[in-house]
């Protein structure tokens, strides 16, 4: 058997390495004492990385862990405006049950492949009725310009 890859020649698949750090949840409501952050692939639904639990103090929770992840991102016809792949969720939770999840944010890593420097994102948690935000730094360790030079 063989697999037919549609328009494979029209896509450029490159591997990009990312680093996520300085995680901080802002405006955490009372009753959420110890939280962790999980990095989940949207494509597979699998947890890729998980922080340890950190205590909430004055409505803020900080994690010291740094996550690293490599992913393949496709560019249609070399057009940087059309990228495919690289969608990840960051889930902020207190436990593993649904009731223990404070909220989540989804990030398209394709939006960050051209940046050589780290940038800070502050995103409001989805599925959260408390106005809580997750702030973190994201850095592409292998920016797109480097890959273009090799092709």
Concise summary:
This protein has one helix at 144-150; strands at residues 11-26, 34-41, 47-50, 54-57, 60-62, 67-76, 83-84, 87-93, 101-108, 119-124, 133-140.
The helix fraction, in percent, is under 10%
Q: Which H/E pattern describes the elements? A: EEEEEEEEEEEH
Which CATH class applies here?
Mainly Beta
Give the rounded overall mean pLDDT.
Answer: 85
What's the number of helices?
Answer: 1
Beta-strand content: over 45%
The major sheet is characterized as: 11 strands, antiparallel
Radius of gyration: 17 Å
Distance between the termini: 31 Å
Protein name: C2 NT-type domain-containing protein
Organism: Opuntia streptacantha
Pfam families: NT-C2
Domain C2 NT-type: 6-142
Chain-wise SSE layout:
Blueprint: E1 11-26, E2 34-41, E3 47-50, E4 54-57, E5 60-62, E6 67-76, E7 83-84, E8 87-93, E9 101-108, E10 119-124, E11 133-140, H1 144-150
Notable features of this structure?
single chain; 151 residues; mainly beta; Immunoglobulin-like; eleven-stranded antiparallel sheet; 1 helix; 5% helix; elongated; disordered C terminus
General description of the model:
- InterPro entries: NT-C2.
- It holds the Pfam family NT-C2.
- It comes from Opuntia streptacantha.
- This is C2 NT-type domain-containing protein.
- With 151 residues, the protein is mainly beta.
- Helix content is 5%, strand content 50%.
- It contains 1 helix and 11 strands, in the order E-E-E-E-E-E-E-E-E-E-E-H.
- A hairpin with a 5-residue loop joins strand 2 and strand 3.
- The radius of gyration is 17 Å and the shape is elongated.
- 23% of the residues are buried.
């Amino acid at each position: 058997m063989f697999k037919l890859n549609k328009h494979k020649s029209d896509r450029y698949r490159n591997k990009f390495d990312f680093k996520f750090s300085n995680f901080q949840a802002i405006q955490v409501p009372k009753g959420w004492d110890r939280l962790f952050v999980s990095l989940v692939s949207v494509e597979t639904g699998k947890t890729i990385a998980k922080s340890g639990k950190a205590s909430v103090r004055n409505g803020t929770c900080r994690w010291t862990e740094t996550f690293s992840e490599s992913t393949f991102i496709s560019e249609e016809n070399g057009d940087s405006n059309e990228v495919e792949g690289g969608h990840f969720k960051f889930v902020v939770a207190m436990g593993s049950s649904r009731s223990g999840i404070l909220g989540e944010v989804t990030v398209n890593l394709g939006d960050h492949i051209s940046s050589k420097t780290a940038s800070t994102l502050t995103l409001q948690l989805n599925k959260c009725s408390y106005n809580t935000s997750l702030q973190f730094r994201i850095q592409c360790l292998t920016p797109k310009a480097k890959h273009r030079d090799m092709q």
